[in-house]
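dumping this here before i forget
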Amino acid sequence: MQKRKMIEFKPLKKDVLIIKDFIEKSEIAFCDITLGAKYIWRDDFKIDYAIFNDTLILKESCRDYQNAFYYPIGKDISGALLEIENYCIEQNQPLLYCCIDNERAVELSNRYPFVKITNDRDWSDYIYDAEKFKTYSGKKLSGQRNHVNKFKRLYPNYAFEVYNEKDLPAIREFLRDFERGADFSAWGALEEFNKLIDYIENAKKLNQVGGLLKVDGKVIGLSFGEVVNDTLIVHVEKALYSYEGAYPTLAQCFANAFADKTVKYINREEDCGDMGLRISKLQYKPLEIKQKNVVQVFTTAKNITPPIEFETERLVVKDTQLDDDEFYYRLSIDDEINKLWGYDYREDLGDNAPTKEYFSAFRENLAKSGEEFSLTVFLKSTGERIGELVVWNIGFYNDVEIGFRFLPAHQGKGYAYESASALIKYLKEKVGVKKIKDRAFKENAPSNKLINKLGFTLIREDDKKYYYEMNF
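structure:
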């Protein structure tokens, strides 16, 4: 069996149409999961994408987090989630999901034993009933209705026109007027404004819809967005405050122009923590303020709390400490031991000489990151250090892998079996592990014999190794 190929990510840049077919299939109607948002904010929210089995995997980095994954979109969600998990383990990076709706947050919390779910009110999307937005009907929206009526009385020569590329000069003039009276104190306001012309120039190519509110032929407001499934998402809405009632009029005209019978909802995006914008959005009476959850997934390492220590009839096993450095160094540079261990320190050090300090820091960093825990095996009778057990390849499903290596003088005496059996018992009973994995080179007959004796089941092989599992 060949080694599994890790998914490869590519940066998503201006050509966001690459993911168009997937975006249209998304059931999560967040403004973030749209072509327009990905185009506008491509420099502020770094997006990488990969396609696995006709399924889109997006990875995002921004000021709040690094390498967070969106919920996959496509036909093989389960397979894509496994790919994400394996990627994080192989890259030794945390597993973090972003822009997750409540329904899928529950799914992920049921999938993993150890999760933490958080959300920030500032980034929640405002969702409205499309039909009510078209008329502002009902008592609750009487204020917006009155503003529109006043606007129509004040400016009887108003018009709303669908965007045409010939309008670009007038739009540039409008944006100059808008800039003079704008407040750019809210997060992202100035950044968005500076990106508008580029976005509008490419709107049709990106399948965006847009319209202009005019008075006596002059552009006094504009709005752009897109339709994703049953939701009209408003990415941009700007109007001159000097025209009283321009904003509610623009919003209503935009809804009437582009929310056809297939559109049930209007998403007017988040308020970014701007209190003025929040009050305004609430006045339109949203059906839902849709939370965007961040789901942090922890490995089984969360349940491994040093110090680890246990005894057998002949042995004491405990965390490898600083006073074990001399022994750990001897164990790590012994070529006979390590030719079947699976790691050669020369891969990292090259021609540089190995030192006790190097191996000590290497071990401590692995433990600190939760990637690997080293345990030293002592003879109970003499206190002599004779070998090492490791807990590594720590997964997200209460699963770990174990390994063992012993000094040549102490091999073949049953110490590996005795200590590994105790470690398996410790992991099962104290840590709550549900699956333990192990592996060995095919030519390493003693290790394969020991693994079978411990009760592992052979699950697969490749050109070099056998792979085993034990489930509880």
